[in-house]
Amino acid sequence: MISLTSPVRTWAHGWPAGVKLMGLCLTTMLLFVIDGMAVQVVALLAVLLLYCLPGRAFLRSGLTHLRVLVPFIVIVLIWHFVTDDLTLGVKTILRMITAVALANLVTMTTTLTELMDVVHRLMAPLRRLGISTAPLEIAMPLLIRFAPVLIERAQLMFQSWRARSVRRQNWRIVLPMMLLALDDADRVGEALKARGGALPNKER
Questions:
Q1: What is the pTM of this model?
Q2: What's the CA gap between 182 and 141, in Å, rounded?
Q3: What's the pLDDT tens digit per position in 76-122?
Q4: Which segments cross the bilayer (predicted)?
Q5: For a 10 Å CB count at each end of the chain, is N or C smaller?
């Protein structure tokens, strides 16, 4: 598993995780409340500036993480071209890029431990009601950690396919990808069992 936190130290690394998550929620809500195209463009340029300030390495790493949006951008553009409403499509894309870029910025400047501390505090009312939140607190970081790992595994499998066959990749690659994911899940399950599993919460 890999870390999503950027090794490039920025001004935002020292900010409390709760403040950054709250700012992310409020900004995303405003992006969807305000309808003006100019506002969406300015917001995206402002986020791009935040990526540029720490330097080229941080900018390059951030943009690399955002490449996953390309297929969605293409789909939204095609859909709004077909429905003859490209203006709405462009605004939707600007909102999507800005919101995801901000979320990515929070992830790059916040350690997973800090994020999970916020989640643990937010779930305190449930624990007072006697509901165990330990399984969810374990599942969330696993999901965050494994998503990029599975994407990397898929890319390696595509490369292996291209190296061994002149035919294009097709649906047959889905089964080995699922088996790899299940194998990883099995190993993680064994590791969790060895460490006591997702037992009910213990007060910190």
A1: 0.70
A2: 17
A3: 999 988 888 888 999 999 999 999 999 988 888 888 888 888 888 88
A4: 29-53, 65-82, 94-119
A5: C
Q: How far apart are CA 70 and CA 87, in angstroms?
A: 18
Q: What is the DSSP letter of 168?
A: P
Report the length, in residues, of the chain: 204
Q: What is the mean pLDDT of residues 156-183?
A: 81
> Helices marked H in the chain — which ranges?
17-33, 37-52, 56-65, 70-82, 86-108, 112-122, 124-128, 134-164, 174-194
The one-letter amino acid code at 189 reads G
Can you tell me the distance from the alpha carbon of 10 to that of 159, in angstroms, rounded to the nearest whole number?
A: 34
SS3 157: helix
Q: Report the half-sphere exposure of 35 (CA within 13 A, side-chain side).
A: 2
